[in-house]
Amino acid sequence: MFKGFVNKSSIPYILSKSSINILNYSQTQYNWTRGNSSNKLFEYMASGKPIISTVKMGYSIIGKYNCGIELDSCTANDLAKAILQVKNMPVEHYMIITANAKQGVKDFDFKNLTQKLVNVIASVHK
Asked: What is the percent of the chain with per-residue pLDDT over 90, rounded to a whole number?
């Protein structure tokens, strides 16, 4: 279901009702070699649902945390195959992907990132 604009506070509830989350990006409009750090990616990871990205990133958070699928090319058929791949995967594999997403997003938690920055600054000022 397509919701259109929703308030930020409603996003966790909406994503909790999904089975798959899709990052629908242009393969030609941007240079994806350095990856992606959009809010939507981290919201999707926090939901603990598999992510399908319509682009393959050079630096891939999805690949690093094994929490979804990145498409080399994106046609409607490619996207449909990826959706069916997730739908038809064994429950155990689906659960591993969901756990990977939830664990991986912790590395990008504001408190964790702030502490890493504090540690770097402290190490420089010694």
From this structure: 66
Model pLDDT, residue 38: 81
| Residue entry with tokens 């920055």 | 117
Residue with tokens 């190490």: 123
Using alpha carbons only, what angle is made at residue 109 by residues 108 and 113, rounded to the nearest 5 degrees? Answer: 75
Tell me the chain's radius of gyration from C-alpha atoms. 16
Q: Which residues pair with 22 in a beta bridge?
A: 52
Asked whether residue 4 is domain-assigned, the answer is no
Domain limits for position 22: 9-124
Taking alpha carbons only, the member of 70, 72, 62 closest to residue 97 is: 62
The domain tally of the chain equals: 1
Q: Are 17 and 49 in contact (CB under 8 A)?
A: no
With respect to residue 13, please indicate whether it lies within any of the assigned structural domains: yes
Say if residues 21 and 49 touch (Cβ distance below 8 Å): yes
